[in-house]
């Protein structure tokens, strides 16, 4: 598909799926660096064998020292393998063309670590509390996704609705808790919104889904006994960043703002 058609498809549907977007080598280097962090963190516990897998090390740390596990998680986003990828040409070319800009703000990339068997769904939401109104997210699983691992599910074309308000929409998905999915499901039973059905794409490690911030999206629980690792990077438009236009505002747009007025 030529680029013009590809980006038209993005704006029509609010998302794109790019198969094999990052290489096995990229994935390996992310795992290797997180493994380095896990070795140092576990070393301070002095109770582990080095031949454990990364999943085993992470889960062991979680059990032995949950605070240190959180520190490891906090620091993953600063690993050079993650930052390098987020700033690489192939990510930026897509992000800048979609946002129609020569300059974009790259938010700190992250690896999302969905623990096994915790039965935690991330309810659907629009991507708020970012630097700009218009944000492009790359969501890239580092493991093959299936029904048991759970993965991203979203409602195509909902970016066209703009910022949608509903009960507790002025707080994060995590703070709103599991009842949010019921609120969203009810919202989309509305006559005008019924046509926006959820889909769950099947993705392999390294495939990317790129989506607009107003697409309703969430993740299903991971019910396997392994971690679901996902790489996420975000690109914010410089044109719709209030912080660059007003001296009396916060860096991130608050959840309570009316994004349709930005
Ligand atoms: Fe999100």
Topology overview:
Elements: H1 3-13, E1 15-18, H2 24-43, H3 54-64, H4 66-76, H5 80-86, H6 89-99, E2 104-106, E3 110-114, E4 122-125, E5 135-141, E6 152-155, H7 173-176, H8 179-187, E7 208-212, E8 216-219, E9 228-237
Antiparallel strand pairs: 1-7, 2-9, 3-9, 4-8, 5-7, 5-9, 6-8
The chain binds fe (ii) ion.
Strand fraction band? 15-25%
- Tell me the number of strands: 9
Bound molecules: fe (ii) ion
The total count of helices amounts to: 8
Give the H and E element order: HEHHHHHEEEEEHHEEE
Mean pLDDT score, rounded? 93
Largest sheet: 6 strands, antiparallel
What share of residues is helical? 25-40%
Task: Report on the architecture of this protein.
The chain is α+β, with helices and mostly antiparallel strands and 262 residues long. The protein has one domain: Sandwich (Jelly Rolls). Helix content is 32%, strand content 18%. It is built from eight helices and nine strands. The protein has helices at residues 3-13, 24-43, 54-64, 66-76, 80-86, 89-99, 173-176, 179-187, and strands spanning 15-18, 104-106, 110-114, 122-125, 135-141, 152-155, 208-212, 216-219, 228-237. Strands 1, 2, 3, 5, 7 and 9 form a six-stranded antiparallel β-sheet that branches. The chain has a three-stranded antiparallel β-sheet with strand order 4-8-6. Helix 2 runs parallel beside helix 3 (54-64). The chain starts with a helix and ends in a 25-residue tail after the last strand. Bound molecules: fe (ii) ion. Fe (ii) ion binds at residues 125, 127, 217.
